[in-house]
Amino acid sequence: EGLRYRLRMMGIPLQGITNTFCDNDSVVQNVTDPTSTLTKKHNALAYHKVRETVAAGVQRIAHEFGRFNLSDVLTKNLPVYKHKACCVC
User: Model's pTM, two decimal places?
Assistant: First the structure.
């Protein structure tokens, strides 16, 4: 919901569900399954808000395999061949 708020502040109109893709399968499982339990308090607080948005139908969390995740270029030190594959001009 914070991301949607910031996008609206920049003048980007949003309609419908926000799709969020994650390459961590356990995160997807914990957020989308209301019966999963979180053992760490700081994780529980962070996931609680996301679970609310998923339950309200505002956000959809989906798994994306790491080899297709384009954000890895900005967040990880990739080998040259993977970097070039993501940055084809």
Answer: 0.61
